[in-house]
Specification:
Layout: H1 2-21, H2 42-60, H3 64-95, H4 100-111
Length: 112
């Protein structure tokens, strides 16, 4: 019985030290607001999270049904992002119409 108490004491001490040395941290989204692309709306960001969930589900259970769901969702989302990006730059070009310097600045922004 004494041996068991020592083991439990040692385990608790080790557990507490481990938690102090490596505290549990919550992770936030990888998309930082300063680096966020302007054409990614909140709806698209939610859809990206949903796509990632479907991908994780596909990796855990690679059934043909999960693969089909993921591929269809991914392709529709990719198409939606393209449309959003085109719309964003179309609006930007309409705003800079007549100003050559701003237009070229926008073109260089797209190229980078």
């Amino acid at each position: 019985m004494i041996q068991m108490n020592r083991i439990i004491f040692f385990y608790n001490k080790l557990y507490n030290l481990y938690n102090k040395a490596f505290p549990m941290k919550t992770c936030t989204s990888r998309i930082l607001k300063s680096h966020q692309k302007p054409w990614l709306t909140k709806g698209i960001q939610r859809s990206l999270k949903n796509k990632n969930k479907l991908y994780k589900k596909l990796i855990k259970r690679p059934t043909p049904e999960n693969k089909l769901k993921y591929k269809q969702y991914r392709n529709k989302l990719h198409h939606l992002i393209r449309i959003s990006k085109k719309r964003h730059y179309k609006e930007k070009f309409e705003q800079t119409q007549g100003n050559v310097k701003k237009t070229w600045s926008l073109i260089n922004e797209i190229i980078e």
